[in-house]
Amino acid sequence: MSLPAVERTLIVVKPDAVARGLVGEIIGRFERRGLKPVEIKMQTVSKAKATQFYIVHKDKPFFGDLVSFISSGPSVGVVLEGRDAIALVRRVIGSTKSWEAAPGTIRGDFATGLLDNAIHASDSKESFDWESKTYFS
Q1: CA torsion, points 14, 97, 107, 84, in degrees to nearest 10?
Q2: How many other CB atoms are there within 10 angstroms of residue 74's CB atom?
Q3: Is residue 1 assigned to a domain?
Q4: Which of 36, 61, 92, 103 is the most buried (most CB within 10 A)?
Q5: How confident is the model at residue 97, as a pLDDT?
Q6: Is 120 a catalytic residue?
Q7: What CATH number did the domain enclosing 51 receive?
Q8: What is the tens place of the pLDDT at every residue in 71-121?
């Protein structure tokens, strides 16, 4: 049996979690699981960049709310590297719907609503490629 491949993924600590001082706690959870931050950037995302970042959701009714929320204050983007990073991050963050997220996951512990769910994470290599290029541009 071979070990899972080393890969990269993106997390974005959303404005609600940044405002609550949770950046270090959130990044630390990934470091304790063996993932290494290889790029970090704090910024207030412009509406134009947010529109590009969430373009895959453009036809969904919540698109405007996503764009408004992520651009409402500073966020912190982190590229994480490690074995099976994409799947591991998705397990650590918990369900998108905060009320369904298990205790012990980031969203289960820190989310307060649907949009203000503390964190975004890429769900595939393709989304990582697009989202990291957009966030760090």
Answers
A1: -90
A2: 14
A3: no
A4: 92
A5: 87
A6: yes
A7: 3.30.70.141
A8: 999 999 999 999 999 999 999 999 988 889 999 999 999 999 888 899 999
